[in-house]
Amino acid sequence: MKNLTKLMMVIAFAFTIFTIAPQSVMAEMKVHKVAIHVDESDPKKMNMALNNVKNVRKYYDAKGEKVIIEVVVYGPGLHMLRKDTSPVADRIAKMSLEIDNLQFSACGNTHSKMSKKAGKKIELIEEATMVPSGVVQLIALQEAGYSYVRP
Question: Which architecture, in CATH terms, is 31-149?
Fold first, then answer.
């Protein structure tokens, strides 16, 4: 009887090690990647995109999973990242301090056109990273396995 009890304990231990433990390790290693697209100069759309960032992060944090988020802006959406016209600059600054793995990418093509039209180089907020093309950045992110969101 003692041998049967020991055998059952070994089986229960092995079951725990080989079924439950790998699942928790897999959950810890799971990484989600999200690309959020903004191409409108509408403060409501910009705030909706930032709400998406906040909600996605909150959801995956609660699950103990990592998320990488990149907000890609081009066309009129570049106003979101312009130092002189962004209606959400303060919110972006705060979110950038609070959220790891969050990037704001500004379209270089749009930046060049806006700068040319203004007759001077348009300054972007410090949280912005310039990419050559917003559209090409979105394509590259999707090819790299990012999920695409357009608020």
Answer: 3-Layer(aba) Sandwich (3.40)
Mean pLDDT score of the chain: 89
Q: Which residues are CB-neighbours of 72 under 8 A, at least 6 positions away?
A: 35, 36, 37, 38, 105, 107, 131, 134, 137, 138, 141
Dump pLDDT digits (tens) for 45-59: 999 999 999 999 999
Between CA 108 and CA 2 the distance in angstroms is: 73
pLDDT at 3: 57
Domains of the chain, residue spans = 31-149
Among 105, 103, 88, 90, smallest CA distance to 47 is for 88
Question: Which amino acid does the sequence have at 129?
Answer: T
This prediction has a pTM of 0.81
Give dist(CA 57, CA 71) in Å, integer. Answer: 13
